[in-house]
Amino acid sequence: MKKQSIKEKIEIATNWAFKLLDKSENLPDVVFHWTDGLSQAYYYRMFQGRCSLSALIKFDVNKAEKNIDNVIEDFRKLYATLNRETDMNNLR
User: Fold this and answer.
1) Residue 73, pLDDT above cutoff 60
2) By residue range, what is the domain housing residue 81?
């Protein structure tokens, strides 16, 4: 399987955030950061080096990529949890 680019990972995280928003409005702030574009703007700016020199020096590309991977995984888990809760409510 081909390794996903940072851009692809950002798109995946964004798509999961919007899926979550369709399920519930009672969500962690990080979901709203992804749906309003704050997270994407930050990562694009940092990966492109459009920031201060000191911020760029402190920016760890591998850590940022791992963070995006973790966001995707957290969003998937939250989506699965919300689906189970919806299924349980439908049974009542």
Assistant:
1) yes
2) 6-86
